[in-house]
Amino acid sequence: MTDIPRYITASRLYDYFQCPHKVWRDIYGPQNEKSTEVNPFVKLLWDRGVLHEERIIESMGTAVLKIKGANRKEEFEQTMAALKSDTPLIYQGVLIHGDNMGIPDLLRRNPDGSYTPVDIKSGAGREGVDEKEGDPGSLKEHYAAQLCHYTKLLNLLGFKTHDTAYILDITKAEVPYPLNSKIGGKDDRTWWQFYDQTVREVEALMKGEDRNYPAISSTCGLCPWYDSCKKWATESKDPTLLFYVGRNARDRLARDLDIKTVENLIDVDIEAAMERKEAEKEGGNKDFLYMISDNTLEKAKRRARIMLRHKRPVALERFDFPKRKYELYFDIEDDPTQDFVYMHGLWIKEEGKEGYYKAFTAKDITREAEKQAWKEFWQYIDGLPQGEFSIYYYSAHEKSTYKRMAKRYPDIKSEEDVVNFFGKPNVIDLYFQVVFGKTDWPVGSYGIKAIATFLGFEWEDETPSGALSIQWFNDYIKTGDEKILERILVYNKNDCQATQVVKEAVEKMMKELPG
Which CA distances in Å does 87 have to 81, 113, 147, 267? Predict the structure, then answer.
């Protein structure tokens, strides 16, 4: 066991929102199993965030006091001196009181002498914003909790604050976070109440008064604990190894039905479980198997059986694939941290011939280069013999990305054009339309890599990863090294080929269905 960290920080709160188990494992987990290497994509995000912050601070001129000392104690003393002397803007000030510490990006003095925390973010200030529909989106939980943390520290240290703090987002817009307002929806708590409850849960984990367990999900890959947690889940036969059984469902199944392993799920009596749920509800216990239906249990039971007993994929419902002379397998590479699409790849299979690869690539990070690559992609698609080809892609990412690009470059394709294109019966989302709802697989993830690997497909790169592709592209831009670009092209080609492998395997499964 390591020494228990003293401070609750904004970073620890962020970890808790990303993965509640990481807070416990950072302190009590097997430290020899924690990776000491920072994932290159994570490092890229850190560097990108730091650069964004520096640009924002530079634009504010000499009015900003930058706190910098030999240690946190010295920086805390500098911050206190700056606050007491009414400094207008304090950058990276250190606030410490008891077991709480915070380092807000900015502390801004108001005309009435109070201070407001402002955090600089290299992303959107709210989530779910839809300008077309007039939806302003909702406040982000981890942003609100962090701002509550800074505001509380200012109050504990004797400084006046207001109920509203701010996020300075990627567009340099100030997004207000009224901390006394209610979260909304079915949640009647204020953000302060939400924060207080979160802190209590984090404290209990840090002190060992409570503990939780790993849950395997699609967000785990960049975490330094991934291999360790995966090892634990595998050895424990944890239900989160099954596709679509997440942390909350796993914990409710263990609490209410004593289901703690994948094997336990095979034997679950679904009818009896639902009868008990109804009885509990009538008795006033609405929390029993909350958000778990008979359909949820049926899927989990079936997938447990397939994983442990059948060990082969199963087709549940027919899907008729269109017959065309040309089949195109489509995948893009993009950098969401810059909202930039740098590659559009196609693996093209003509009936009776060998497949070949074609890519349309932006070779520098400019809107002109992005637009040109997209233009060339559409020129190729529009030049194909209409009615003689089908296109396959995996997940909705391509569709949603292209809708955003249509807003940016409507002279190439309008948003209506893009929607109509993806709505055609010969343009198929292989994941959503087929794999997700019409098949089951003996793997924990239905991502293209998990399923194609199960089918025996191998990527040529030793570390195939969409996140690393972003890192490679940024390295290519810095160095101009064509070998790096070739690595991205090979990776993208393999993604397209993997889509073909999955499509053909599913098509074969469909043919084996009765009738």
Answer: 9, 10, 20, 66
182 vs 184: CA distance, rounded Å: 5
CA distance 370 to 362: 5
Q: Which CATH number is associated with domain 326-511?
A: 3.30.420
Burial class (CB in 10 A: 0-12, 13-18, 19+), 305: middle
Please give the single-letter amino acid code of residue 300: A
| Cα torsion 21, 27, 33, 36: sign | positive
Cβ-in-10-Å burial (0-12, 13-18, 19+) of 430 comes to: buried
CA–CA dist 152, 327 (Å, integer): 59
What are the pLDDT digits (tens) for 268-301?
Answer: 999 999 999 999 999 999 999 999 999 999 999 9
Q: What's the first-to-final CA gap in the chain, in angstroms?
A: 60
The encoded tokens of residue 297 equal 């249990």
Looking at residue 34, what DSSP letter applies? S
Residue 99 pLDDT > 90: yes
Strand blocks (E) in 336-466: 340-350, 356-361, 389-393, 427-429, 439-440
Q: Considering only CA atoms, which of 110, 118, 108 is closest in space to residue 169?
A: 118
The whole-angstrom separation of Cα 315 and Cα 437 is 9
The pLDDT value recorded for residue 4 is: 52
Nearest to 460, CA basis, from 420, 492, 423, 432: 492
Contacts of 479 (CB under 8 A, 6+ apart): none
In angstroms, rounded to a whole number, what is the distance separating the alpha carbons of residues 96 and 82? 14
The one-letter code for the residue type at 481 is D
| CATH 3.30.420 domain position(s) in the chain | 326-511
Summarize pLDDT for 169-178 with one digit per residue, the tens.
988 899 999 9
